[in-house]
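If you are new to this repository, start here. Below is one unmodified record pulled from the training split, so you can see the exact layout before writing a loader.
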Amino acid sequence: MPVAELPSTGQMDQRAWDAAIDGPGWTMRVEAETHVRDLQALERRIALKQRDGGIDSVILLMNDTRHHRELVARHGSGLRGRFPGSPRSTLRALSQGGDPGRSAMILL
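And here is the target side for that same chain:
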């Protein structure tokens, strides 16, 4: 069941995920971004929260804007390495209540 604004690791940690999706034996968190300026900082922040929280998979959810499409076009190979799941298969698995099995980047 989705939850909004979930603390990253504990009460003393000021970091938070934008949403949480959990199923039997798996956890997925959502990091939603309206305008990505520093891709390296974003990837580093997500990786640290994922590591510190013991999270299996992350969805990087970004506004479907010209800026983000160009960002993905320029840095797509690196982003796909970090977020290898396809948007379509990720959304399909989640809509069926299943584990997408990997992190994914979705422009919405």
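Two things worth knowing about this chain: The chain has one domain: 3-107. The two ends are 20 Å apart (CA to CA).
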